[in-house]
Design brief:
Layout (H helix, E strand, L loop, with lengths): L6 H18 L7 H16 L2 H23 L4 H20 L10 H15 L4 H9 L1 H17 L4
Helix pairs in contact: 1-2, 2-3, 3-4, 4-5, 5-6
Length: about 160
């Protein structure tokens, strides 16, 4: 049997490297949640255990939202968007890794949190505000894609 490094050892190395990087990039306490999430994602990458993916996706998304909110002084929207996209990342990573279709559950909380975050973002300025105001166009585009895809398939 080949020798596998200890997951705990790898997680500590990843955390140490991330904390050093955070110091160099002036990311303080607001980045801790994202860093711990990235360590969980590293553990998932090494072991392919779903139990590391769930907290990794949630904490990384939430942490990125916290950093974004802190840097922009934008209230609410970035944290909800980050958390929602963190849940959605669980689904995406799971699908890329070839897991069963039953793993679609993260789309429910991810979708709800992301939509609420987008509604809140509509009241913001800059890029976040633009995304918050124009995201319904994505729904229209997806709807059109579904309709035209069904029409182009034989027998429908």
């Amino acid at each position: 049997m080949p020798h596998r490094p200890s997951v705990a050892g790898i997680v500590l190395i990843v955390l140490g490297a991330l904390f050093l990087l955070g110091q160099w990039m002036n990311v303080g306490g607001e980045g801790v949640v994202a860093m711990i999430g990235l360590a969980f994602l590293a553990a998932h990458a090494l072991t392919r255990q779903y139990g590391f993916l769930v907290p990794g996706g949630i904490m990384t998304g939430l942490g990125i939202g916290i950093i974004y909110e802190d840097r922009l002084q934008a209230e609410g929207a970035p944290v909800l968007l980050g958390l929602g996209l963190g849940f959605i990342s669980i689904y995406v990573i799971s699908r890329v890794r070839g897991r069963m279709p039953a793993d679609w559950w993260p789309l429910i909380p991810g979708g709800v949190l992301t939509v609420i975050g987008l509604f809140l973002a509509a009241g913001q300025t800059g890029l976040l505000g633009a995304v918050g105001r124009w995201w319904p166009l994505v729904l229209i585009a997806i709807g059109l894609y579904i309709i035209f895809r069904q029409r182009s398939q034989p027998g429908t």
